[in-house]
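The instructor's notes for this session suggest beginning with a concrete chain rather than abstract definitions. Hand out the sequence below and ask the class to guess, before any prediction is shown, which regions might be ordered.
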Amino acid sequence: MQTRKKYIFLTLLASWLLLFFFAGERLLRFTSFSERKTEAQRNWPHWTDQSLLKSFADPEELQSDGDPSVPSPRERRAAQLSIYKNSRCRMETCFDFSRCEKHGFRVFTYPRHRDQPISESYSKILTSIERSRYYTPNPEEACLFILSIDTLDRDHLSGQYIHDVDEKIQGFPLWNSGRNHLIFNLYSGTWPNYTEDLGFDIGQAILAKASFYTESFRPGFDISIPLFPKDHPQRGGERGWLYQDSVPPKKKYLLVFKGKRYLTGIGSGTRNALHHIHNGKDIISLTTCKHGKDWERHKDTRCDKDNVNYEKFDYQELLHNSTFCIVPRGRRLGSFRFLEALQAACIPVLLSDGWELPFAEAIDWGKAAVVGNEKLLLQQQTQFLWDAYFSSVDKIVHTTLEIIRDRLLQHRSRSRVLWNALPGGLLALPDFSTHLGDFPFYHLQRGSSPSKRFTAFIRVTSMEGSLSQPILRLIQAVSRSQYCAQILVLWSSEKPSPPRGKWPQTTVPLTVIQGRSKVSDRFFPYAAIQTDAVLSLDEHMSLSTSEVDFAFVVWRSFPERIVGFPAQSHFWDAEQRRWGYTSKWTNELSIVLTTAAFYHRYYHSLFTQYLPAGLRELVDGLAACEDILMNILVAAVTKLPPIKVAQRKQHKEAVPQQVGREDGDAGMPLAGEWSPSPPWSPPAKGKGTASGRHLSQQQDCLDQLVDWFGYMPLVSSQLRLDPVLFKDQVSILRKKYPLLDKP
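After discussion, reveal the predicted structure:
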C-alpha cells in the first residue's frame, strides 16, 4: 500500500514538472511575444539595418547626460505619478459622452478676462477654435471645454508662467475635476530636470502636449502635439518646399545637423555624440558651444574648433540640400527643427528616446521618418504631413479636435489610410463616408473609377414663376445624354414652382426641390443626389448633348477636379499689392464657374459641413461669390487647377443680356459675357454699371476668402481639353462629337 502511494506521488510530481516545463516555456514565449507586439505598436520608426550600423560614440558618452542633476528613471516615474494623479484615465472612464449626444461635437472656450495675460501662441489656439465649425458660445451645448487661462508655458522661470492656476480653475463651475476639458501645453518643467510638472492638477482633463514622454502619455486619451514657434502662422501656412507629385532633385548632402551643443545638463549626451559622424562631404554635423551665459566656463577642447566650423555653413542652405536631417532632442524631447525638416522635405532622423510623436494615433510616421531605400516616397510624405497637419496653428488645433471626435464616434471614425493619404484626415469627413471609394481622391490608388452616370442639378431663380424656353431647352439637352441618371431642379424663386404637368417629359427622372433664396443652397448635400458626379447648371446656360457627354467623359478621368465650360482667372496686382479677379479672356484660367461644371458630390458635404457658417453667409451676400469659394475649396483640397473643356463657337461670340437677380445672385456672369483682352489686364471697375458693381463684389469676395484661408489656394492653368479632331478639316462623320463643331 505504501509502495502504491509512493508511485502515485512520484507520478503526480513528474506530471507537475512536465507541465511546468512545457507550459512555462510557452508562457515565456507568450510574454516575449506580447512585449514584442507592444513594442511593434509604437509608432516610432526603426532602423532596419541596426545591426550593421557602426557605433561612433564611446559607451561612457551615452551613459548619462553629463550632469548629476539629471533624474534617474525611478525619480522621473515618481515625479510623473505625483503630477498625473489620474494616470489611469481613458475616454471610457474620464469623459462624459452624454454631453455630446444632443448637440454633437461642440467646443466651448471660457470667456477671456482683460486683466488675464495671454501669450500670442495661446491666443492663436483660442482663435482657431472660435472661428471653426466646432465652436459654440453656449456652454450648455458643449461637448468639450477649453480654458481661457494660458497653460502653454509652465516653466516657472518664464515670464509667461501663470501663477495660482489650481486656485483659479477650482473656482470654475464647469471644471468638474477637469472632465470633458482639453488643456494645451508646449513647455513643462524647468532647469535642470525639465520634468513634466505643469504646476497644477489637470484632474481628468485631456492633455494636448508637446514633448510628451511615452511613460506619462495616456494612450487613447492624451494627444501629443508638435512644438511650434510663436510666429507659426495662424492659418494657411507656407507650402512645403517640394511640390506635389514632383520628383525631388538629387541633393548635395545625405545627412545634416546644425545646432547648439549642450555642454552640461539634460540633452547634452545626445548632442555631444553628433560630432563623430561629420565628414565634411556628404554628412555635415555642426555644433556650437555658445549656449547659455556661462558657456565659456564649461567649454572643452573641442569648442573653439566647433565654433569655427559652425559659421562656415548656412542652416537654411543645409536644410534645402539634404536628404536626411538629424532631429535630436533638446532640453525637452521635442524640437522646432522637427517641423522645419518636414517643411523642407528633409526626412527626419529622430534621436529622442521616449518621445510620443505628434498625432501618432492617426499619423503613420513610419512612412515619413524611417531611414530606408524609398527616399522619394518618404520626402513626398513629409510634404503631405506638413501641409495637412502642421503648417499652421489652425491645422494643429483642428487635428487635435478631430482625433478626439474620432474617439467619441468610433463607428464613424477615419481609418489610418484616410489620415495618411492625400488630402488628409481633416478634409475626409467621416459624416460623409468612411469608405475610400466614396471619395473622389482615391480612385487611382485603388484602381477603381467613379460611377458611370451623373445627376444634373439646375438652380432656378427666375421671378416669372413659369418655365422659360432656355430652361426647357437645357432640360431636354441634358436628359438626352447617355450618361444622365436624373435631373434635380432647385427651385429658389419666390414664386411657386409650376405644376408637374407643366414640366417637360424626359427619359430620366425629374425632381423639383423647393429651395430658399440663399445662393449657398446650391451646394447643400441633398440626399436626392445619388451619383458621384454632379452637373451643376444655371437656368440660363445653353449646352448641347455632345458638350455634356464630352465634359462628363473628361471628368471621369479627373474626378477630384472641377471640369466645366465658362472660366475666369485671378492675378496678382503688383500696384495694389493684392490679388485681383478678372472675367476677361486670358491665356490662363484658375476658376471654372459652377453655372456649367461637373464635380464630385462630396464637395457639397465639404462646402456645407467643413466651411464655417460665416463663409456661407459671405457667399449669400456677394455676387458670384459661390463660384469663387467652391473653386478655392477644391483647389485647397487637391492643390490642382480646374479643367476647361471645349465649347461651341456661339458660346464665345454671343453676348446675352444681363439677367437681373436678387439675394446676391444678381448678374452672375454667364457664358459668352467676356470679350478678348490682353492677358492679366485688371478688370474694369465702373462703379456706376451693374457689371462694375458685380466685379467689385467679386474682388471683395476674393479678398475675404484669401484672408480666411491664409493664402491663395487657386492654381492657374493654360490647359483646355478638346475632343479628338475638334475643329480639324475632316469629315464630320469621322468625329465622335460632331455637334461641337457646329456654330
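Then share the key points. The two ends are 117 Å apart (CA to CA). DSSP finds 22 helices and 22 strands in the chain.
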